[in-house]
Amino acid sequence: MGTVHLIDHPLVQHKLTLMRRKEASTNSFRRLANEMSTLMTYEVLRDIPMQEIEIETPLERTTGKVIDGKKVVFVSILRAGTGILDGMLTVVPGARVGHIGLYRDPRTLGAVEYYFKMPGDLRERDVVVVDPMLATGNSAVAAVERLKECGPKSIKFVCLLACPEGVAALHKAHPDVPIYTAAVDRELDEQGYILPGLGDAGDRIFGTK
Ligand code: URA
C-alpha cells in the first residue's frame, strides 16, 4: 500500500490557494511555486539519514548531526518540474540534479521520453522526483520506472497538487514510492486537468499562455 504525505502546514496551504486563483500573474505564480516547494522540502527530507560527527566549538569538543551519505538527487520532470526545483535547491544547495524529459501524447495522454540525464552514481543516492502536478500519473509512473533501472537507494515523489486518479496510478505501479503533496483535489477531467486544480502549471510558471 503506498503512502501519501499531505503537507497541510498553514503557510503551504495559504500559498496554494493564492496560486489557484486565475488572477495570479506569471510573476506571482512562479514565486509562489518556488516558496511552496521550499517549505515542502522540509517535510520531504524529514526522515533523511543522519550521522553523528565530532566537532569542536570555540569552547569544547562535542558531537553534532549531519546528513549522511552522498548528496540527494532532485529529478525534475521537464518542463514544469523546473518551476519547483529552485525552491528545493534553496534549502539543499548541494543537491545533485537530474532531468527527465517526457511529453504528454495529446491523444493517449501517455508519457513519451525525449531526454534523460542523471548523476553517475545513482545507486548510492536517494532520489526525489519533482513535478508540480500529479494528474493522470502517466509521467510520474514512466519517470519512476526509468529511474528504477538506475537502482537508486530510494525514490520519493513530490508535487504541489495531486488528484485521486494520479495517486492511484502511481501507487498501483510503484507502491514503494511515497507521494508528498499539498492537496489531493476532487478529480481529473477528460482533458487530463485536475479539478478544481490550478490550470496548466507549466504555462502558468513560464507565462506561455
Ligand atoms: N498538468 C497541469 O499542469 N495541470 C493539470 O491540471 C494537470 C496536468
UniProtKB/TrEMBL annotation:
Residues 7-208 form the Phosphoribosyltransferase domain. It catalyses: UMP + diphosphate = 5-phospho-alpha-D-ribose 1-diphosphate + uracil. Its EC number is 2.4.2.9. SUPFAM superfamilies: PRTase-like (SSF53271). GO terms for biological process: UMP salvage; uracil salvage. Keywords: Allosteric enzyme, Glycosyltransferase, GTP-binding, Magnesium, Nucleotide-binding, Transferase. Uracil binds at I194, G199, D200, A201. Allosterically activated by GTP. It comes from the Bacteria. Binds 1 Mg(2+) ion per subunit. The magnesium is bound as Mg-PRPP. Its cofactor is Mg(2+). It is an enzyme of class 2 (transferase). 5-phospho-alpha-D-ribose 1-diphosphate binds at R79, R104, D131, P132, M133, L134, A135, T136, G137, N138, S139, D200. Pathway: Pyrimidine metabolism; UMP biosynthesis via salvage pathway; UMP from uracil: step 1/1. Coiled coil: none annotated. One of its GO terms (cellular component) is cytoplasm. PANTHER family: ADENINE PHOSPHORIBOSYLTRANSFERASE, URACIL PHOSPHORIBOSYLTRANSFERASE, CHLOROPLASTIC. NCBIfam families: PRK00129.1 (NF001097), upp (TIGR01091). Belongs to the UPRTase family. Catalyzes the conversion of uracil and 5-phospho-alpha-D-ribose 1-diphosphate (PRPP) to UMP and diphosphate. This is Uracil phosphoribosyltransferase. It comes from Antrihabitans stalagmiti.
